[in-house]
Specification:
With about 575 residues, the protein is an alpha/beta fold. The strands form three sheets. Strands 2-1-4-5-6-7 form a six-stranded antiparallel β-sheet. A six-stranded mixed β-sheet has the order 8-12-13-3-14-15. Strands 9-10-11 form a three-stranded antiparallel β-sheet. Helices cover about 55% and strands about 15% of the residues. The protein is elongated. It is built from 18 helices and 15 strands. The two termini are about 25 Å apart. Keywords: ATP-binding, Coiled coil, DNA damage, DNA repair, Nucleotide-binding. May be involved in recombinational repair of damaged DNA.
Length: about 575
């Protein structure tokens, strides 16, 4: 919901901040005080058009900043797509600054944004009723979801079945499109795949081969160094030289000395035995060193062969995968693809049969959905008719127009030609006739702002529990009504505000006294200046504003008493 709105240098407003609460927020004030400026400012935040004429006279720029508290996940996908971090507590800050030169600067949570990004977010956050902007009910494409949300559980179940089948259906259609390319393209694809398979097969690759080759190359490249190290080790351990005895000779000499004294103390015997074990081990190690030395051989032909083999693997890796295993995996995949293409006609026939079966299933569900929607539509029409009658639109007619855009059944030839839409085959549109003798027409064709707002209020009252737009704004909703109708409008706004934040501009006391939060918009006039101010109303100040609306310039004790009575009655209604 909207928790704070700061407006700077717009029309008569120098700088004001309004903090709407949850529930029903009512804005009142004299005509011309600047109530419409608040709505225009909110529209600016929602990506609506702004004119430089909105900028306060004598100023170069104007700005609006709004703080929202969003339900979890409500705009997460949009923020992620914009690369904007979502705050943990759901706070969303949107600002827009515009100048007399026409420059716009938009920000979302401090990050630069575009007007279209604001508009996309706005459609998720606020519906403004009374102006022909940001109204979900005026978007015909949304009507089918609204109708379905009003329907029984059967519609939800059928839509789930339909979505599951449609996913399979579209997957098979994509596969058919791949397999049914033109003949030349198909042959080129076959040649390319066959070339790639032959190239990989010719190399006769083996898993782990590259690592083994690299190890062999390293040994061959360092054969001289290895042979020298082994010979030196053998000399030190076994042969020795003229200057220095070998390791084995030295150990044997030490062993002879120890054996000579082993009879004197058992400890010397134990040491001699341990040294004798070392002597045996050293002889074995020396033999291994000699054998390894004798097998070391520098083979330039073998090294060249290994280098060529590694080069072959590297060239294939650049084309088909970073490792031998990846190359072999790729080869397996394209072998299957080639087989599918060669078997194309057979596979196409199989897929077309499956598509036909899915088409029949989808068409059957679409017809059942159509029947369920017709039931829901008749009920919705009756419910909205009652609401419109309460709102003094007794002659208005509301109709849910449902057109099934598809055949009665699947023919063998036309099975894959049906254009299945995301929600079935129905096109749904809400139609209205405001006055007797007028034909039914789309909601967007309604000219009167007051009629539009009341129709929206009627629909929102019925769909309040299903509508997930957090904040609703009603402007001009009291045009042409009074008395009991005004009371009903107030009650319906109160009902909707139990599930949504509602902001409403009104001139009627019956509506104003229903608010959870009241704000007075007033124009303060000086000798050469005029400025709009906003202040919250409570207690006596609220009573006096209700009395002003009731009595105009002349406020009597009777008017004040009437205002107190209306506020008391409104509290009773809300408590119930």
């Amino acid at each position: 919901m909207l928790t704070q709105l700061h407006i700077h240098n717009i029309a008569l407003i120098n700088s004001v901040t309004i903090e709407p609460g949850s529930g029903l927020n009512i804005l009142t004030g004299e005509t011309g005080a600047g109530k419409s400026i608040i709505i225009d400012s909110i529209n600016a935040i929602l990506g609506g058009r702004v004119s430089k004429e909105l900028i306060r006279t004598g100023k170069d720029k104007a700005s609006v900043e709004a703080v929202f508290k969003m339900p979890e996940g409500r705009v997460s996908d949009l923020l992620e797509s914009y690369g904007i971090d979502e705050e943990e507590d759901g706070t969303l800050i949107i600002s827009r600054e515009f100048t007399v030169s026409g420059k716009n600067t938009c920000r979302i949570n401090g990050r630069m944004a575009t007007v279209s990004m604001l508009k996309s977010l706005g459609q998720r956050m606020i519906d403004i009723h009374g102006q022909h902007d940001n109204q979900s009910l005026l978007r015909t494409e949304d009507h089918i979801d609204m109708l379905d949300s009003f329907g029984e559980e059967a519609i939800k179940r059928l839509r789930q079945e339909y979505s599951s089948l449609l996913l399979k259906y579209n997957g098979i259609k994509s596969r058919l499109k791949e397999l049914s390319g033109d003949f030349g393209q198909r042959e080129r694809k076959i040649d390319l795949l066959q070339f790639q398979i032959d190239e990989i097969k010719k190399a006769r690759l083996k898993p782990g081969e590259e690592q083994q080759l690299n190890k062999q190359r390293s040994l061959l490249s360092n054969s001289g160094k290895i042979s020298q190290a082994l010979s030196h080790a053998y000399e030190l351990l076994f042969t020795g030289n003229e200057i220095k005895a070998s390791g084995c000779d030295s150990i044997n000499e030490a062993l002879t000395a120890l054996k000579g004294i082993s009879g004197l103390d058992g400890r010397f015997g134990d040491i001699a035995l341990r040294l004798e074990d070392i002597c045996y081990q050293l002889e074995d190690i020396t033999k291994c060193i000699r054998d390894e030395r004798d097998t070391v051989e520098y083979d330039p032909d073998l090294l060249e062969h290994i280098e060529e083999r590694i080069d072959v693997i590297h060239k294939l890796a650049k084309k088909y995968g970073p490792s031998v295993e990846d190359i072999l995996r790729y080869c397996g995949g394209i072998e299957q693809e080639l087989e599918d293409i060669i078997r194309g006609e057979e596979i196409i026939k199989e897929l077309e049969q499956e598509l036909k079966s899915l088409s029949k299933g989808l068409l059957s569900i679409a017809h059942r959905l159509h029947d369920e929607r017709n039931k829901a539509a008749r009920l919705l029409e009756r419910e909205i008719a009652k609401e419109l009658e309460d709102l003094e639109m007794k002659k208005a007619k509301f109709k849910v127009n449902i057109v099934l855009d598809g055949p009665e059944e699947c023919s063998a030839e036309g099975a894959i030609d049906i254009k299945f839409m995301q929600n079935g085959l129905d096109k749904v549109e809400f139609l209205i006739s405001s006055n007797p003798g007028e034909p039914l027409k789309p909601l967007s064709k309604i000219v009167s702002g007051g009629e539009m707002s009341r129709i929206m209020l009627a629909i929102k009252t019925i769909l309040a529990s299903e509508d997930n737009v957090p904040t609703l704004i009603f402007d001009e909703i009291d045009t042409g009504i009074s008395g009991r109708a005004a009371q009903k409008v107030g009650e319906k706004l109160c009902l909707i505000s139990s599930r949504h934040q509602v902001i409403c501009v009104t001139h009627l006391a019956q509506i104003a006294c229903m608010a959870d939060h009241n704000f007075l918009i007033e124009k303060i006039t000086g000798e050469n200046t005029a400025e709009t101010d906003i202040k919250p109303l409570k207690g006596v100040a609220l009573r006096d504003e209700i009395a002003r609306i009731l009595g105009g310039a002349s406020i009597s004790s009777i008017t004040l008493k009437h205002a107190e009575e209306m506020l008391a009655n409104s509290r009773d209604f809300k408590n119930k």
